[in-house]
Design a protein that fits this description.
- By secondary structure, the chain is mostly helical.
- It has helices spanning 7-18, 28-35, 47-62, 72-81, 86-101, 117-136, 139-165, 170-192, 198-207, 220-233, 264-272, 278-294, 300-310, 325-328, 334-340, 344-372.
- It has two domains: 7-233, no CATH class; 241-342, no CATH class.
- The longest helix is centred in the last third of the chain and has 29 residues, at 344-372.
Amino acid sequence: MKAGILSSVLVEQVRNTAAWLWRDSRCAALTAVFDAAYDEPIELPGALLRAFRLRLAAHHATVATFVPTDVDAHIRHHMWTAVSDAETFSEARAHIDEAASRDAALVSARVTEGLSGHDGEWFSVRAGGLGRALVLGFDRDVDALAGEIDAELDRERRLFAATLDEGAPATTALALATTIAHNLGDLSRVVDAWPRSARIAELQARYSRLGHAECSGWGGEFWLAGILNKELMAPENHRFLALRKPRALRRSRELLLPVGPWFDAWGEKVGVSEWLDDGDRAEVVAALVELHLRSPAQEGCLRALAGIHRCTRGGVAAYGPGLPARLRKELGRGRIRDAIDVPRVRFETRIESRYRALLERFSAGAGRRLRANG
């Protein structure tokens, strides 16, 4: 197996996107992993495990930042192929447990009711290990990893079911729906890449496409989460690549982006943050306008602009002189102008209404699936 990115380069990438980790004493155990990293040939004794642990730490630290480190394929696929003995496999599993035990809320603004995309990352990494354990015939590890994945899937299903039963607002229910849909999609992509065999096929069927109507073995909650995500949330939670350009957004944990489209509060934070000056804010405004022009139906970037507008003397137009002419002219017209005029409460009420209408439309189908699997 090729070592991939050098450990020193990976640590520098973490510092580039999340240097604030080193200022937070709660992250001391995490940053200690980075501080101890060094470059070494992957063939040396223990080097594979050290590289695996470092990559898990980097993924945990940056996956919810503006510039995540690109180690997904390594921790889900490539590094597992280099494991061939039971002792190394067991130690690799322990490193996943360590990563999963870390508090995602310290490195992410997208944690809802204790659930985040980090949870999906870890059962996806476990799924990569499970595929390798099936190939190697490590039956004890197969049972343990499948049990851990099952437990996390059941936790997410129960949490979403309880949220629906309690009539939680759209801000909670839809954030959970999009997180669950993301997590299930990650799991499906990993297990679909497993090698083909009769023994593996059963588990592939168990974990693939869980948010789709034809895969109802886990009940109607996953199907309903997938529907809500597709209908309301998917366009609002892409990778926001334009926000990589304003480097000032990487200065503090408080500037991390939450689940969209509820970006009003984030925009207000950008408008007043001590970590930003007016030049920085102008860069953020420019990036948000770019996002809008590329994805006109996406509402989160418009809500962020509305939040900034409310906190700025003269509104977002005050940042116009710092924008390219083609972006400056967009600030006072079209959907940007309309969004600025819509109060946060009215926008959230509209999302709530759309959510309730969809829930009423599709929950009957979910109920049938629940009864069929009850």
